[in-house]
Structures are given as C-alpha cells and as structure tokens.
Design a protein that fits this description.
1460 residues; alpha/beta; Rossmann fold; 20-stranded mixed sheet; seven-stranded mixed sheet; 47 helices; 44 strands; elongated; NACHT_NTPase; NACHT domain-containing protein; ATP binding
Length: 1460
C-alpha cells in the first residue's frame, strides 16, 4: 500500500505542477511516461495487453478518502489500470527520463522490434465539447504557447478548425446549453491571481528552473501566441497555424474561434491525449508536428536567393514558377500533350485522352530536371504552398508534408532519419515519435513525402528508403521524387507519373525578365532583351527557360550597353568577367575590363578540371572538402556566384554541398581548363577521348549533351587553333551537323573571310573541316536541312576544298531565302568543280517553283571553274517537259558564253524532241562541252537525229544515252519462225521480223541468224531467280549446230532500220566523229538496233569504250561479239547484267569471239551465270586465256556451275582435299597479260557439292604471273581455311605472283589449331612478297577450338614480314581494344616499313584509340589522322638520327661563326 500511495502522490504533484505552469511538450511527456512505468497500459499497437492477468487492482482517487475504484475495461480498446510486477516498480524520481538520452535512443530505433513500446499513462475523460457535438463552444481550442488542444478527440479534428483570434476573450463561454464546468476551490484561488501576457523577451538575468526530467528552462515558461521560445538559442518562431481540413469537414470548421490566455489550471491536449491512450494521442501529435513543419517551411523558404553578381534582385521561392512536361513511363505508353504547372503535379490521373474522366491521384511521382532548373526549389515550393494556405491550397488534403534531402540520408530507417534530422527533441520524444509513426500508417493518404535528390541517394546507405519509394512502406502515401535526367540509377518501378522540368514557359519568361528590370527601375528594357533573345533562338532558346540564366542575360544586357554577345562562348566569358569584377569591387581591388587577373585564371582552370570530372561522373555537385582540397582557393567560386549552397532539410547534418547555378557553368569552365592544354596535344586528345567515352557527344539535344557543349565552348575559346579539336573529334565519326556547329562557334563566321588576315587565321580550320566533312569527295547537301546555312558559309570561304556537291532541292516556300543565300555562296565558290541538282516534282510544281529552279541553275552555271553540271528532275506526273522548258532555255542561253569552263553536261529532264534539238544546236557552238549525258530519252526520230549530228560535227568525246527508248523489233525467244507475219514497225513493206540478219546454210537455204541460234541463247535469269540445265541430247545438238555454223558479220539494212538509233550508230561510223565513249546501258533496243550496233563496232575508228549494262538475253550480245573479231579500236566493253545465262554453246561462241579480238583491254562480265557440262568449254577457256590481250577482267558476282559426269572430280566431296584434286584433274590455266582480276563473290560449283571461292581460286591462278591486283572477297564464313591451306596460301604468294601489289581477302575465315604459331610461320614465308596493299575487309581469325578474336595474329604476321607494305585496310574487322593494343605494340617494335597507312572504317573509336596509344608510346611513331570516309591514319617512324644530325649541324655552324 505504501508503493501505491507513493505513486498516487507523485502523480498528483505532477498534475498540480502542470496546472500552475506551462510545461514544454518534451518535459511533460517524459514525466508522464516515466510515471506510467509503474503501470501497464493497454496499447493497440504494442501487443502488450494485460487482459489475461488475474486479480483486480485499484487505486485511490486524489480527492477521495482512499476509496478504491476498479477501472478495467476489457475488449473496448480503451485503458485499464493494473499493478505491474514488483520488479518493475521504480520511484518517480528514478523513472524520469532525461532528454539527453534521446539521441542514444534514436540510434537504437532498429531494435524496437524486439522491445515492446513504452507504456503510456491513462487518458482522461473527454471534454464537454466532445461529449456534446451540438455545442459551438471552442473551449478546447486554446491560446497557449503550445497551440494544442485540451483533449485528443478535439485534437484529431483540429484540421477542420481555423486559427483562433487571441483577442476574442480569455475564458470559454456557456453556449447552447453547455455550461462551463465549475472550477475547484484550488482552481478558484489560482484564477484570482492576476494573469500577465508577456510580449517582450526575458531580461538577460532570467533564472533557469531545473525540471523534473533534468532539462533547464527559463523562469518564464509561458509565452504569447506571437512568440514561442525554442531551445538552442534560436529566434522565436510562431506556432499558431491551423492544419489542413480533411474531407468531409463540418459546417463549424470555418468559424473563427477566440483565443485566450490559459488559466493556471489549464490541461494541455498533449497531457490529455497521453492520459487517454496512444490511439487518441496520434491526432494531437499530427497537429503538433504539422504546426512545427509549417513554421519551419515558412521560415526556411521565405529567405530569398540573392546572387553575388546581381545583388539588387532577389528570387523569392514563393514566387517560383516553372512548367513541366509529362514523360511516358514506357516507350509504348502515351501521355497528354502540353505543359503542366506546379499544381498539376499531383492532379488525378487522366484515364482517357479523348474524355475528361479522371482516376485516382498518383501515389509515386518522379520529377526530373537539370541543375539550375529548380528541382529542390520545386519541392520547397510545394511545402511552402502547403504551409501558407492549409485550407484552400491544392495540397489541403495532406495533414503532414515532409521534405527529405536524400543526400543526407545515411542508412538506417526513415523513422530514425525523421527523429534525427527532421523533428528536433523539443517537439517530440522518442516515445511520442513511435506513436506518431504508428498513427501515420493509419492516415497514409494524408501524408506527403517530398524526396529531393533521388540520384544522390547512395545505394549502400539507402536503408528502407527504397521501400518507401517502391511503395512497400506507406503504400497509400504520396511520394514525389526529384532527380537529374540521365542518372545512372534505374527508374523506380512503382512510378505512376514521370515529369520533366521544361523550365519557364514563354509567358513566365516574360514575367521574370520584366520583374528584374522593374526592380532596377528600367521597365522598358525587358521587351528589348526578349526581342534580342528571340532573334538568337539557336543560342539562347534553351537558356531562357532557366530563371538564373534569364537573370544572367539581363545583367549582360545592362553590362554591355544594350547588346548581347553573338556567341555562347562570349556570353559566358563576359558573365565570368562580370562576376570577377563585382567580387573585386566588393574587395576594393581594381580590374581591367577585358583581362582576367592571373590568380583568377588559375582559379578557373583548377575548378574547370574539377568540374570536368564531375560532369564525367554525372555528379554535378561538390562538397566544401572538394573545393578546399582539389581546388586552391575554391571558396572564391562560391563567392563569385558560380556555385550555390544546396538547401538541406536536415537538422544535424553539417556537411555543405554546392551545386552550379546552371550546368552550363560547369561545361564552360571545363572547356576553359581544356583550352590551357592546347600546347600539349597528346594530353588534350586524352581528355577529349575521355569525354567521348563517358559522355555521348552525338546526342541531338544540346541541353542534355554536356560533352558536346564542352567541345563547343572549347573551339570557341581556341578560335583559329580549333583545327586541333576538329582533327580529334572527326576521328570519332560525329555527324556533319556537329562539325558545322563547332565551326560556327569557333568564330570563323564572325570574321570577314575576304580579308587576308581572316584567311590566314582560319585557313587551317576550314581546310580541316572540309577534309573531314567530305574527304574531298562528292558531298550531298539537302536544302531542307538545318545545316544549309552552314554549308553556304563553308562554300563562301576562300579556303573551302570541296570539289563535288550534290544538292537535293526541296521547294519549300518558307525556306526560299535560305536557298537563295546558299546558291549565292555557291556562285562565289571556286573550289567546287562538279555540281548536281536533283529534285522530285509533283502536281504542286508550278510557275513559282520553275522560276526558282531557273535562278538556281543560272547561279550554278555562271560560277567560275565549273567543269561538270548535272540536273536531274524526277516527275511524279506525266508531260512535264513543257513545264521545264524555261530550265532548258536557261541552259541554252548560258552555255555558249557564261560557262566557258564547263566540260561535262548531264540533262535528265525527260526532254521532248523540240528541246533535244534546241540543246544540240547550242552544243555545236559550245566546243568546251565534251561529255554529254542525255539519259532516258523518248524523243523520237527527230531528237535522235539531232544527237547524231553533234556526234558527227561537234568535238564531243563521250555520249551517254542510258535508259533511252527505241522502236525496233524486240529479240523474243518465241520469234523462231522464218515467215512470221508481224509487220515491221518502221516500214510497211519490210521483210519479216528477225530475218534481216541472214546467211545461206550448206543446203543453200537463207536463214535468219537470230532464228538459227540455239534456244539457250534466249534464256535469261530475271533477278538470278532460276537456273536452267540442258539435257545431254539438247546440249550436243546445240554444240554441233554452232560448230557447223559460221556467223556472218552483222550488217545493218537501212530499209528495215530507219529509226533514231540507226542515225546515231551510223554517225559513229563516220570518220569525222571524235566520240570515243558510248553508254547505251539499259536502253530498250530492238534486233535491228543491235545488228546496226554490231556493224558500228566493226567499222568504227574512234569508239574505244562501249557500255551495255542490263541486257536480258545472250542473243542481244551476239552481234557485238561477232563484230569484235574485226574491231581494232575498242578497249573497254562492259556487259554487266544479272540476267545473262550461258550454256556450253553460248560460252564457246563468246570465248571464241573474245579470243580473236586483239584491241580489248578491259572486259566486265559482272553478274553472269555460266553452266558448263562439256569438256570443250574448258578447252575454249584455256585457248582464250592464252590468246587474249586483256589486262583487266571483272568477273565479280559471277557463278559457274560445272557438272562432271566421270573422273576424280565427279567423286569429289567437301571432306576431300579440293586443291590437290583440282591440281591433278584440271589442266593448268596460263595467262601472261592479265594484271587486274576481280573475283569478288565469284563461285565455282562442282556437281552441287563443292563450292570454290576466294582461297581455292587463288591456287587456280598460280600461272598468272603478271597479276598486279587480285580481289578475292567472298561471303563471310563461306569457306573455312585450315592450317594446311594457310601454309600453302602464304607460300604461294611470293613465288607465283612476283608482281602482285594489291590483294583483297574480304570475308575470309581462318580456323587454326594454334593461331599464333601458324601465323608466325606463315608470315615468314611472305618476306619475299612485293605486296604493298592488303585489304582485310571482314576477315576473321579464330582457334579451331572455337575461341574467337585472334585477328591481331594475322595483322602481326603481315606488318612484320611485308617489307613493302604501305596500305593496310582494317575495315570491318572485329578488333577489340586489347587486340588493337597488341597489334599497335607489334607495329611500334617490329614494323618492317617506315610509313604505313591504315584504313579504319567500321572500327570503333575505342579500338582506334587503343591502337594509337600503343603505337605512339615511347615516341617512336607519329599517328596522324588524314580524314576521309575511309578513316585513314598515317603512321610515320620518327628518325632520331636526322634530328641529331640537324642539331649537330647547327652546333658546328655556331662554332664556325664564333671562330670568325
């Protein structure tokens, strides 16, 4: 009984003491919790209910005479008073918990799962307001310093109540029949004492009172609503703020209730709630925490951002505004278009784009944005809006809003982080935090977490933060994450919405800039700045979306006297100078306006190196330790305003982080550091290589491409020395538009290129760009591309080196000015010698478009040094010849006088007869035009006659009529009769078709040559889709027929053949004709035309080149082949066609005819298919090779199908030694004239079992000693070369091909048992070879066990043993960086030559970089990039002896001069 009386007395004293003075929440709760240690309370969340205990325990009431009352209520979830075990009894003094141990308890929060939560004291009965809901009294809403409620039920409803007026009264009133409870005698005595409201701080000599929990507090414990004392010496902050009202609030919620000063007997809501139980206490804690958070957000956010370089303007977060774009969470998803505002972040999800139906509010939202665009400010803006407008805000449904900076999260749990970093000790103790945490789980939908810096969260220290983000914890709460785009952290899978901060919208930009100029009393300047920015959208379009950069442009506008810089580099340099000048003025030091002090050059360079590393790691923020240790005087960067201190919501974290005002400051300063490496090219290339490796410099969006922006600022800082950067960047295969962007930023366009000084300064730069843009080859320029102006500027430069330009015209009305500017630059250019204009016209091609085309043609034809002009118009409509007549007129008017240097004219306009006649008449007066191309003519007899006249009378050298039409009789395989009744299309009295080329057989019968040809002459392979195999009987009959037939020479019959082609072919037979090149590829010619052509080939004295590509049947070639036997001038014959199919008979006729010709030097039979079944065909081939004078034979893509019926070859299989079998069974092939042989993708199939390709074919050519260039490319993996074949191949090259200079081995696959051993042995056999060029396109080398990646062994064998090797092509090789490094080391140590060119097209830049580093290590070789589409590098060995000899020569000369 003594123990019970002691506890009762202690509780009575505590309650009396609390009634007489105002306790702090921490002290009161700790005392109540400590006193309750002698009792075990029922807690719905603790799991420590004591209903099962036997025996009823009672306590004596404080005002009674010791009467016991049983207060047990089992099963109701309320409270019960029971005596605890004797071992748990402690005195009130010893049970008081000091707040000094709070931190220690928070650290042990993870162990709470093993310990039951602390018992709470019993709750008190509800107040009068709670018992009768009809009352409008606000007796529970008090005006005490703690701003809490007198009972838990009222505290839970505090969100529905507005702030009370402290001036409305001091006491609760009797209202609606609810009398105020009469105070006790003790209370009446206390009421008679005067109440003083203190509004001034305590005097300095205020005494401290030691509380029962061990804390100290000033003598004055109560304060007014205007001020609240906070521990730690912090300034008083208001705590009187209402919480947001939940949904479904009653009508009395909007009533303003009066505040009054609490009487001495006032019982706080925390105390009441603690006595009622944990469930009711949670609502009071929510109200208490919400009040504290609102106060913190108001005080923390209300401080404006003031930049050191613009002290007159303050950026207030309450005025922060931005726009956002919704980004799909997956590629296949769609999102609503348009910009979103800040309140739209948490708006309900739209279920359909076509309807206005809305779904639930998103629970997890990701907001991404670049540094400087306000990610953290956006989170604080949301918290500020919640704090300042709790009832009418778009966030009014949230009772609690937590702002957490994730970079301060160092593991553990979110609970412990809230205890340590967010809520201080004087707000909640650990026990109260447990209760709040459990209550938050009940009201999850009213809790909002704003997590700042998801990309800064350390994965190893994430604790259970990922559970909160993924929705495993507080699944119904709302979580908003902010992060940088492109972060290495994966996108959380539980996101419901993904947003991207787009920055300021146009109207927001206007308001922001106007507000700045209004602040500095220049309201009219805002519109002027906006007009300058809109005129330079390409430079400033992205910057004006950032508020800080808008402010920077405004500052520069004032600083530069109403102007803005013309380049981004100049803008940032001017801004840096302005910052430094402001800083020096603040210090009282002078500064020259245009020159940076040396110490600031050093400071910016050091920080630029640090910034470059941060951008590479994608972590654009710095700690104070980084600035102190890695950058000398790094604190001045913060003083300049380049870096801003990052906002943190943590209370205990003392580590400062700094972020750039805008990411572009880091990019510019990184370029500033790199510009200082211009004298160390190797180090500069290493840094740029690192940028290209870690940052994508080809990204199309500049705002997201830090690597490209660094290079852009770098070339701007280097100016005329930027050609070094171009040489490095071009090796990386960047698009042309990036090269133009860098060229523009380098400043070349701002100089007058006609001045000699500008020419000298930027000559290397322009030459470098031209070299890498086109490789001095034909370039394609599209007039609708964004780079058209850049092409025009490049062409206008006198240092331009472009020689051929192909312009693709697009007649867009909006781009007319750009087109005219481009062609004006073209007319002034002197380097371009070949121009091609190409366009496609449709139904909307009218007079205005024709007029524009005419002006463009004139601009090109009148340019100086133009040697070749080509115009090609493809019409989607019919009858466009009349529409294009003005173009033909312009060409005819310009040719004689204004295009004196023009040598080649190509007009592909589908000309009619009148236009062809007009053009040919002009060409007779233009002797400088020697090459004429008139493709796709369908002009009839008159037009072709005009062409024939210029063939006879003009100094024309080459004529191209490819694709033109004729009206002759087609050679059809069905026309085999001699008496066909089809009339001739040219004359009514003409003989039957195909009977004009006839001969008399042995029986005296007159027969047509075409009708007498075997059927195989009419076979074709459309698209190489089928193969035809003749029967043995038919094959023998065709061969016998050809042996007995002597074809007469082709002779044209003018009576039958009187069309336009007859006139042209007849002109070639004229001795006065000078045309030596004729191209009639893909022309539609009849049998009469072919016979006439054959006669021309027989008698021409000038024709040296004839191209007939695209023929469909062998019969169409027969007239020319027969005529070749008498021709003495033709040197080139091109019969390329994928449709030609030859049997034995046709092959023998072809070989026989070619063998009799002695003038032919170049023969192209690309794409033919040959079927061989007769041994006679092989004999004819051997005879042809022995007799021919050919030097160049092209058999690429040909297929030879050989059928052998008996012998060793008939039994040959793939497992046999094919090379040995061929050497034994096939007679050797000899030729002493062929120098160039192209056998790319040439195949020989034996009995459909064995296929001979590149490697095997080389052994068939072992008796071709004069070969200089052999190409044996094959399909990748078609043949596997083993060890024995490799040995024979390498040993064959030096002995059998003594003059071989170039060898192509494309697509070969070596599969060797020991690659290094076999290649080393084979390489030694190559030492006697004269090879100078080796092409290894797509070659693979691997171990026979299956290990790939051994190509470097072949490269090592070639480079160490070929002493004449000058060009080595690595195009298409699958070299890794390690293989390239090993190959480069071999070159450095064992290269057999002094110079070597490497073609690296198709190799990754990482491979090339590893190769370059290995070669240049030690300084023995130079590795220069020559540019071009092939990616050519030149390796040159540095001869140290020459350097030493030169040095000695200088020394000896100085010695002699000194002696004199």
């Amino acid at each position: 009984m003594m123990g019970e009386e002691d506890d009762t007395a202690s509780l009575s004293r505590l309650l009396d003491d609390a009634a007489s003075r105002e306790f702090s929440i921490n002290g009161l709760h700790d005392d109540l919790a400590s006193l309750s240690c002698g009792y075990a309370s029922l807690d719905a969340h603790s799991g420590s209910h004591s209903e099962g205990r036997s025996g009823a325990h009672s306590r004596s009431d404080m005002g009674s005479s010791g009467e016991s009352q049983e207060k047990s209520r089992t099963g109701s979830g309320r409270w019960s008073w029971q005596r605890s075990s004797p071992g748990s009894r402690r005195t009130s003094k010893s049970s008081i918990k000091s707040s000094d141990n709070l931190e220690e308890d928070v650290l042990d929060a993870d162990d709470e799962d093993e310990k039951p939560p602390p018992a709470l004291p019993p709750s008190l009965p509800p107040c009068d307001t709670c018992e009768d809901r009809s009352s409008t009294s606000s007796s529970c809403f008090t005006g005490t310093s703690s701003s809490v409620l007198s009972c838990t039920t009222c505290a839970a409803e505090s969100d529905n109540r507005p702030e009370a007026d402290p001036k409305s009264g001091d006491h609760p009133t009797e209202d609606a029949g609810h009398p105020v409870p009469a105070p006790s005698e003790h209370d009446q005595e206390q009421e008679q004492a005067p109440r003083i409201i203190c509004k001034t701080p305590d005097p300095p000599d205020s005494k401290l009172i030691i509380l029962s929990n061990g804390n100290t507090t000033p003598h004055r414990l109560s304060s007014t609503p205007e001020e609240v004392w906070s521990p730690g010496g912090e300034p008083p902050v208001p705590l009187v703020t209402s919480t947001p009202a939940p949904q479904g609030n009653n009508s009395n919620a909007s009533t303003v209730e009066p505040k009054y000063v609490a009487p001495h007997h006032y019982v706080s809501s925390m105390r009441v709630a603690s006595m009622r139980g944990a469930a009711d206490m949670g609502g009071a804690l929510v109200a208490r925490v919400a009040t504290f958070l609102r106060t913190q957000y108001k005080n923390l956010i209300s401080s404006p951002l003031q930049l050191p370089w613009c002290p007159g303007f303050k950026m207030i977060v309450s005025e922060f505004e931005t726009s956002l774009i919704q980004v799909p969470l997956a590629a296949h998803l769609k999102v609503p278009p348009g910009l979103l505002t800040v309140p739209s972040i948490l708006q309900p999800l739209q279920l359909s784009f076509t309807e206005s139906s809305m779904g639930d509010r998103p629970k997890r939202v990701l907001v991404e944005g670049d540094p400087g665009y306000g990610k953290s400010t956006l989170a604080l803006k949301l918290a500020y809006d919640w704090a300042t407008d709790p009832t009418g805000s778009y966030l009014s449904t949230y009772s609690l809003v937590f702002v957490l900076t994730l970079r301060d999260f160092r593991g553990g749990s979110v609970f412990s982080h809230l205890c340590k970093e967010v809520l201080p000790r004087h707000i909640l103790s650990k026990e109260a935090m447990n209760t709040l945490w459990n209550h938050m789980k009940k009201i999850e939908d009213k809790v909002l977490f704003l997590l700042v810096g998801y990309d800064e969260l350390i994965e190893e220290e994430s604790g259970d933060m990922n559970e909160l983000i993924d929705g495993q914890m507080f699944s119904n709460a709302t979580v908003v994450l902010t992060s940088r785009p492109g972060s290495s952290k994966p996108l959380p899978p539980s996101m419901h919405r993904r947003l991207l901060i787009a920055g300021l919208a146009p109207d927001q930009t206007h308001r922001f800039i106007s507000r700045y100029f209004d602040t500095i009393n220049k309201p009219g300047s805002g519109n002027e700045v906006l007009s300058l920015i809109s005129a330079s959208k390409e430079k400033y379009g992205d910057l004006i979306t950032c508020p800080i950069m808008c402010l920077a442009l405004g500052v520069l506008y004032e600083d530069l006297g109403g102007k803005l810089p013309s380049r981004l580099t100049d803008m940032y340099m001017s801004l840096i100078k302005h910052m430094i000048r402001k800083n020096l003025i603040k210090r009282g030091e002078p500064m020259c306006y245009d020159v940076l002090p040396d110490r600031y050059n050093k400071l910016l360079s050091d920080f630029g190196k640090l910034a470059l590393e941060a951008l590479k790691q994608n972590t654009p923020y710095f700690t104070a330790q980084d600035l102190k240790t890695k950058c000398q005087h790094g604190g001045e960067i913060v003083e300049l305003g380049i870096l801003l201190r990052m906002q943190s919501m943590s209370k205990l974290s003392k580590k400062d982080f700094y972020t750039p005002a805008h990411k572009s400051f880091l990019e510019f300063l990184a370029a500033f550091y790199l510009s200082g490496l211009i004298h160390d090219t190797s180090l500069l290339q290493t840094e740029i290589d690192s940028i290209a490796e870690k940052m994508d410099i080809t990204h199309p969006i500049l705002r997201q491409n830090s690597g490209l922006m660094i290079l852009r600022y770098l070339v701007g800082l280097l100016g005329r020395n930027a050609h070094i950067v171009f040489n490095i960047v071009s090796q990386m295969g960047v698009p042309q538009r990036i090269l133009f962007l860098l060229l523009k930023e380098s400043g070349m366009y701002q100089m007058n290129v006609l001045e000699e000084r500008a020419t000298n300064m930027y000559q290397k730069l322009v030459v470098e760009v031209c070299k890498h843009v086109s490789g001095r080859e034909h370039v394609v320029i599209q007039t609708n591309s964004a780079e058209l102006e850049d092409w025009g500027r490049l062409l206008y430069s006198p240092d331009c080196m472009l020689e051929g330009v192909d312009v693709l015209l697009d007649f867009d009305g909006s781009s007319r000015d750009r087109h005219e500017s481009f062609f004006t630059s073209m007319s002034f250019n002197e380097s371009v010698k070949s121009v091609k204009l190409t366009c496609v016209v449709g139904g909307d091609f009218g007079e205005s478009e024709v007029t524009r085309l005419v002006s463009y043609v004139r601009a090109v034809l009148t340019k100086r040094r133009l040697e070749s002009f080509e115009i090609q118009v493809t019409s989607l409509e019919e009858a466009t010849a009349e529409i294009l007549s003005p173009v033909v007129d312009m060409i005819c008017d310009t040719l004689p006088d204004l295009a004196q240097a023009l040598n080649k004219l190509v007009v592909a306009l589908e000309l009619d007869a009148e236009q062809v006649v007009q053009l040919c008449q002009v060409l007779q007066n233009a002797p400088h035009v020697q090459v004429l191309h008139l493709p796709h003519l369908a002009c009839g007899l008159d037009g072709l006659k005009a062409v024939a006249q210029i063939v006879e009378n003009s100094p024309l050298v080459s004529l191209n009529l490819a694709g033109s039409l004729s009206s002759g009789t087609p050679v059809d395989e069905r026309s085999t009769g001699t008496g066909a009744s089809t009339p001739s299309p040219t004359r009514e009295d003409a003989p039957a078709p195909l009977s004009f080329w006839s001969f008399t057989d042995a029986q005296g019968n007159t027969r047509s040559v075409f009708n007498s040809l075997p059927r195989s002459f009419y076979q074709s392979l459309p698209g190489r889709g089928r193969l035809h195999s003749l029967s043995a009987e038919k094959r023998n009959s065709d061969t016998t027929l050809l042996q007995k037939t002597s074809f007469p020479p082709p002779a044209c019959n003018p009576i039958v053949h009187a069309n336009g082609f007859h006139e042209i072919f007849a002109a070639f037979r004229n001795p006065a004709s000078r045309v030596c090149h004729l191209n009639i590829s893909k022309c539609t010619m009849g049998a009469e035309d072919l016979v006439c052509l054959g006669e021309t080939v027989r008698f021409t004295k000038c024709l040296s080149s004839l191209r007939m590509e695209g023929l469909s049947r062998m019969a169409e070639i027969i007239p020319v082949l027969i005529a070749l036997q008498e021709n003495t001038t033709l040197q080139l014959l091109d019969l390329t066609s994928p449709h030609i199919l030859l049997g034995d008979a046709a092959l023998q006729v072809t070989l026989n005819a070619l063998a009799k010709n002695k003038s032919l030097r170049f023969l192209v039979l690309n794409g033919w298919t040959i079927q061989v079944e007769s041994e006679r065909s092989l004999k004819e081939l051997i005879r042809f090779l022995n007799a021919t004078e050919l030097q160049h034979l092209d058999l690429s893509n040909c297929r030879v199908i050989v059928t052998v019926h008996d012998g060793a070859l008939a039994r040959l299989s793939r497992q046999d030694d094919v090379i040995a079998a061929l050497q034994e069974s096939v007679p050797p092939l000899h030729n002493n004239t062929l120098a160039f042989l192209n056998l790319d993708h040439f195949e020989v199939t034996l009995n459909s079992k064995v296929v001979l390709r590149g490697p095997q074919l080389l052994f068939m050519l072992r008796h071709f000693p004069k070969l200089v260039d052999v190409s044996l490319a094959s399909s990748l993996g078609a043949d596997i070369i083993d060890d024995s074949t490799t040995h024979r191949l390498f040993s064959l090259l030096p002995g059998s091909f003594p003059f071989l200079r170039r060898l192509t081995l494309g697509g070969w696959v070596f599969s060797l048992d020991n690659c290094e051993k076999v290649m080393r042995a084979g390489g030694k056999q190559l030492r006697g070879s004269q090879l100078r060029e080796v092409i290894l396109t797509g070659v693979e080398v691997r171990e026979s066990s299956g290990t790939p990646g051994m190509e470097h062994t072949l490269l090592q064998a070639l480079t160490t043993n070929l002493h004449h090797l000058s060009i080595l092509s690595l195009a298409g090789l699958k070299l890794t960086a390690n293989q390239a490094a090993m190959f480069g080391k071999t070159i450095r140590d064992k290269l057999a030559t002094t110079t070597l060119e490497l073609e690296t097209r198709g190799l990754g830049y990482t491979t090339v970089k590893a190769l370059r580093q290995a070669v240049t290590e030690g300084g023995r070789y130079e590795f220069d990039f020559l540019g071009g589409p092939l990616g050519i590098y030149k390796l040159s060995k540095i001869d140290r002896r020459e350097k030493l000899i030169g040095k000695w020569a200088c020394i000896s000369t100085l010695d002699r001069l000194s002696e004199l």
